[in-house]
Amino acid sequence: MDTEQQAAFSNLTFFRHYDINLRWSITQLFFVMHSAILSLVVTQFRRGSLEYAAACLAGLCLGWLWLRMTARISQWIEHWTERMRTIESSNSAENQIFGAELMRMRRGSRTISILNLLIAGFMTVWTILFIASLDPR
To answer: What pTM, to 2 d.p., does this model score?
Structure first.
């Protein structure tokens, strides 16, 4: 790699690392928000009340926002990874970090799949609680 390509690769590494950290920070924030609202709904609100239904809808909206933000950040991470793979392949280096080896590692379950399951789990709980709030018995 020449100096210009090394500088570009270094910048791409920084952006990719930043986006990965951002995804985990957002995940922590939304996990805490969902946990707090869920504990509030279950312990403080009377089932069938307007507050209960509103909190459940707010939880669903937060889940949808969390899912969209995760998807968008994942697109950026893939973008940076592809750019890094392009720089590596243009040099035909022996030790390609983002080449075929990375693709082989991704065949299994990825962290993003587990994260999406977590989001889907929270959204399922909110949906069930919202449906339960419609029946005040």
So the answer is: 0.80
